[in-house]
Amino acid sequence: MHPLQCVLRMQRCQRWGPLASVSWVLLRTCRAHSGLPSTACSSPERQQEDGVWKDFSSRLATGPTFQHFLRNASVPQEKPSSEVDDPPPYLTVDELSGRQRKVYLETYGCQMNVNDTEIAWSILQKSGYLRTSNLQEADVILLVTCSIREKAEQTIWNRLQQLKVLKSKRLRSRVPLKIGILGCMAERLKEEILNREKMVDILAGPDAYRDLPRLLAVAKSGQQAANVLLSLDETYADVMPVQMSPSATSAFVSIMRGCDNMCSYCIVPFTRGRERSRPVASILEEVRKLSEQGLKEVTLLGQNVNSFRDTSEVQFNNAVSTNLSRGFSSNYKTKQGGLRFAHLLDQVSRIDPEMRIRFTSPHPKDFPDEVLQLIHERDNICKQIHLPAQSGSSRVLEAMRRGYSREAYVELVHHIRESIPGVSLSSDFIAGFCGETEEDHFQTVSLLQEVQYNMGFLFAYSMRQKTRAYHRLKDDIPEEVKLRRLEELITVFREEATKANKAFVGCTQLVLVEGLSKRSATDLCGRNDGNLKVIFPDAEMEDVTNSGLRVRAQPGDYVLVKVGVLSCF
């Protein structure tokens, strides 16, 4: 995948001279990040009682009784997060405890996987595990994986080969290293991973993170363990994700899981299951806590975030369905009732006027006028919309089962720009989908030229097993043609994005400071309302909240920056 964007650089004056032509004002400072757990911890002595695991294998072989499954077959009831499940009959509470074993987590793929990592860590932390950033001292290594295309999975296979060396060195130690595969790759490949790589000890699909303590307890006995069951109701609504970086200024908040769109190229419905949404109340509670901790930006997450539909409150289940964008259709029957995305966005934006609100990833079909009007009206809802097109050819869009034509998509773009003046747009594109002709490709090129996106994510098509395309279409575009078309799309995107983003040059932008620039230790970086990166000197500036005081901007501060230079990559 190629994330493409432009960087706005601050207008500079004479080197080392005063920044006379630059407007730089510190608007307010971030509150202290309180309440975030520290990962620093003294290394405890590893002591194990003799005989704790003596009869474990025999009890595991005996397994639960039939009555155990009958007892647990009732309709699941939501219970307070403080309430602890009874251990399975073949494990004791002590065996489920992490006993301060150290966990090393690696995240691959999309923002949902970042949030999943925080959920998994929250669950393990409550079970007595410690987190480490040192791979060498880890007792457990968990990889949160992606399956969106073949390259993403190959990255994990390569990483496992590297970890195999580390694990072989630990076989002779008193505490053998355990390795787990979490997320979409575990869900897609299942036992193939365990059969191919005997070094993998556990598998946990996206809906099985609550089961991690049990899986690790089973693996500790020397057996492989897996849970890749998909759920119709799991949203982790009662699990408060633990931020991986205590100094973070922004956070992801998952509001729904799964996808019902069934686009022909997409593996997501098969790795993350059907759509289900969190209760609005639980989302608002999480956002409030993040605001209290001093975070200044939240991104609402979902595979199809704007099709959010909370049906947890009975009184709203008879509400009418939300209208689709004009000219768009869905691959499933229109769903009735529930609290919709516009309601959630309204409530979230009211929690903290100083907290920016973003959302991703939406589907173009789910942009009714009430959502667009809300984005226009609320100052803290960012004027930036991700609008995945995937192709500029109506024929290819039909093969992809996207539910719209090129003409309907372009009409929606015009409507969004009329409704939200100055909005920034980003998109996704696939090069070389099944049956794509040169004319289809040129249609995509022309769409890039017509819309002039501010940001883009472009990649070559990678066929995935289980998808509709795998069963009904032919992956007939040679790899070299896919890559050539991809490069052509990237080139055109950069040209058009440069034109679009030139509008920022000479303008003053409100920027949320993220930290030091990766390119220069003397510069800071942040993002404007349109999610474009802005780089500016780390120098003293006026604090408008305290007249006459000059301070340096810190992560979490808002500053006003006058843009002087534009660069794209």
From TrEMBL:
SUPFAM superfamilies: Radical SAM enzymes. One of its GO terms (cellular component) is mitochondrion. GO terms for biological process: regulation of protein metabolic process. Its cofactor is [4Fe-4S] cluster. It catalyses: N(6)-dimethylallyladenosine(37) in tRNA + (sulfur carrier)-SH + AH2 + 2 S-adenosyl-L-methionine = 2-methylsulfanyl-N(6)-dimethylallyladenosine(37) in tRNA + (sulfur carrier)-H + 5'-deoxyadenosine + L-methionine + A + S-adenosyl-L-homocysteine + 2 H(+). Its EC number is 2.8.4.3. Keywords: 4Fe-4S, Iron, Iron-sulfur, Metal-binding, S-adenosyl-L-methionine. It comes from the Eukaryota. SMART domains: Elp3 (SM00729). Residues 101-221 form the MTTase N-terminal domain. Pfam families: Radical_SAM, TRAM, UPF0004. One of its GO terms (molecular function) is metal ion binding. Residues 245-499 form the Radical SAM core domain. It is an enzyme of class 2 (transferase). Residues 502-569 form the TRAM domain. Belongs to the methylthiotransferase family. MiaB subfamily. NCBIfam families: miaB-methiolase, MiaB/RimO family radical SAM methylthiotransferase. This is Mitochondrial tRNA methylthiotransferase CDK5RAP1. It comes from Camelus dromedarius.
